[in-house]
Every structure is written in structure tokens, then in C-alpha cells.
Amino acid sequence: MKYMLMIHQADSPTPLDPDAWATLSEDEQKAVYADYQAINQVAGVTPGLGLEPADTATTVRVKDGQTLTTDGPFVSVKEALNGYLVYEADDLDAAIELAGRIPAARLGGAVEVRPIREW
């Protein structure tokens, strides 16, 4: 089964936010980089891509055949999606274990694990 692991950073520090990143010690920063490197080496992991901040999003809807756009993340979520990866695992437990290794999960964010529908 393939799972998408969607990374919600919330207020967890990332290198993209130098002030927040500076709140981590040098050892903690190195651990974050090492954790992501190790996760990308796991068999069955297809690394995803990071996303620009939520305020750069454009939400698209179609109503009565007309395409409507709204600046920003206009979907109902408490935390913006910041990145993702795909993991082909034996079961949900394996995907949850990997999600727990993603730094955002321990630094104030969350990782949503969702099975990918096979058509």
C-alpha cells in the first residue's frame, strides 16, 4: 500500500524562517537535516518536495463553468501543508512509524498519513 505523508509544519522551526531556526541549537539543526536525509534513504520512500509558504497559494474553484481564484490557502485547515513524501509500506503501522521520525512531528507540527487510492 502506498501512503502520502503530508507534513504540516505549524510553528515548528525550519531553515526557511531564520528567526525560528535560530531557536534550535546547532546540534538540533544538524539532527533535523540528518533525520530527513535518513528518511529519504528508507526503502519505499519517494521524496516529495517542499512547498512555499501558505500565503503564496492560490485556491481555484469552478462555479457555473467559471474559474474563480482566491489568494491564499482558502481551504479549511488549521495548519498549512508544507511538504510531503510518498511511502510504499507493508501496512499503516509502518507508515505511522516513519511519520513519527519526521522532525515536524516532534517540533510542534504534525504529519498526516493517508492511503493513496489505487485506481
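the 2nd protein, sequnce then structure:
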Amino acid sequence: MAIMSLLAASSELSFTEIRDTLSMTDGNLSVHLRILQENGYVGVTKTFRNRRPLTTCALTRQGRKSFEIYINLLGTIVKQTRFVEKSS
């Protein structure tokens, strides 16, 4: 969810920006991004900048919608929990 949260706050981020922000290893981040990409949540683009490879990532339309649904669900759970705590 940390990757999704970062990407939801930006139009796109580079692989290194995500890796460094989340203190992940290259291999770990690659695996997570591949799973998110395979499920249609994240788009990955590979280009070159100054003759160096550049991998950028962005939420897809489906990824953004799914993340918003998830955040709304969390908000509902928090509200329900607060109501139960006050009623007790």
C-alpha cells in the first residue's frame, strides 16, 4: 500500500524515487511493482534520459479507482469503530 500511496500523490515517480523514499531494495521493489503491474494497478515505462535507463511508474485509471475505493473503505471502518467505542 505504500507504493500505491506514493503514486496516488504524484502523477508519476521514478523507480529510484520510490525505492529511496520507501527504503526498499531494488529486487523487493521490482517484485512489488511487477505484481501491481500484472494486476493492472500500475503502469511502468522504461525510457532513457541522458543515455541512462529511466523507469517511471504511475497509477493506471483502474489503480487510482481501486485505491480510492480502498481509502473510502478504511474511512468507513474508522467511523464505525469510533461509533462502537462511543456506544460502549
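The mean pLDDT is 94. The chain has one domain: 2-87.
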